[in-house]
Amino acid sequence: MMQLRAETTPWLEVKDLSVSYKEGIPSLRDISFSMKQGEIIGIVGESGSGKSTLIRALLGLLPVGGQYSGGEITFRDWVLLRDSQQNWRGMRGKRIAMVFQDSGSYLNPIRSIGSQYVEAIRAHFPMSRKEAWGLAVRTLARMELDDPERVLHSYASQLSGGMKQRTAIAMAAALEPELLLADEPTSALDVTTQNEVMSQLSKLCADKGTGMILVTHNMAIAAHMADRIGVMLDSRLVELGDTLRVISNPEHAYTRKLLDAVPELEGNKHDQ
Ligand SMILES: Nc1ncnc2c1ncn2[C@@H]1O[C@H](COP(=O)(O)OP(=O)(O)OP(=O)(O)O)[C@@H](O)[C@H]1O
Ligand SMILES: [Mg+2]
User: Fold this and answer.
1) Facing residues of 254 across strands?
2) Weakest-pLDDT range from 40-44, 101-105, 126-130
3) pLDDT number for residue 2
């Protein structure tokens, strides 16, 4: 039954979404797509094409100066955006969460990681401190952070950049959002750590049925992680399709150009 529902009902639906920062210069133009429950969509595209703007727009968190100039966003039964009316209350953090490139650097430097973590969990779940601490330990362990207790007793300055970023990702995942919006969550990490954190993140998503929109510069990561790949160019979503189809038979010239730059995907392509 669940399967049938998931197959037929759009879960996140975005229609003709447009955003601009300045009058007359759109950063998103008529973006439309829908997403099934638990799906992972990878978004790639050149710098400045609107990827971060899209992620922020989906969460109603446009930077100062950003404006919705049209479109609709619905998530399950909720209308999040219609006629420029925004209604994200109760969604952020709990049902839809976001991690970005430097999430780790937003940890409060003057409070222990544990107290922030426990507070975030208790803001969303009716739990005792002790239960919340236990949940924090389990999620950190699943991010394969050694000695989660030590991490929780630490202050941000006592952790490496990679540890902070993993902690921030684990914290977002601990709240069990239904949809995770991730804007280059690992691009500040070294390549080995990037791959590890990505695979832990995809495991967490698979376990909990969490859907994800993952923005990445790295086509190989998108190909590895995503059910579908979307390609952005100059404020438009110029291609969106099943990962295998996009890689083996890209429709847009710009997608072909991106693929040509990734030698390890070469074997999957048939040039035409
Ligand atoms: N806070 C802002 N104020 C004004 N313009 C902005 C702001 N943020 C982004 N823009 C503009 O919107 C467009 C899209 O930017 P965005 O950050 O969404 O691109 P991106 O695809 O995420 O790029 P990158 O890959 O470099 O992160 C760009 O032209 C950018 O200059
Ligand atoms: Mg960006």
Assistant:
1) none
2) 101-105
3) 46
> What is the model's pTM?
0.90
Q: Give, for 45, the enclosing helix (H) or strand (E).
A: strand 40-45
CATH code of domain 2-268: 3.40.50.300
Name the residue at shortest CA distance from atom 17 of ligand 1.
52
Burial 36-70, CB ≥16 within 10 A → b, else e: bbbbbbbbbbeeebbbbbbbbbbbbebeeebebbb
C-alpha 47 – ligand 1 centre gap (Å): 8
pLDDT tens digits for range 170-189: 998 888 899 999 999 988 88
Question: Token pair of 181, please?
Answer: 């919006």
Q: Which residue in 110, 250, 245, 88 sits closest to 181, CA to CA?
A: 88
Let me know: does 202 contact 180? Beta carbons within 8 Å. Answer: no
pLDDT in the model for residue 7: 52
Residue nearest to atom 25 of ligand 1 (CA): 47
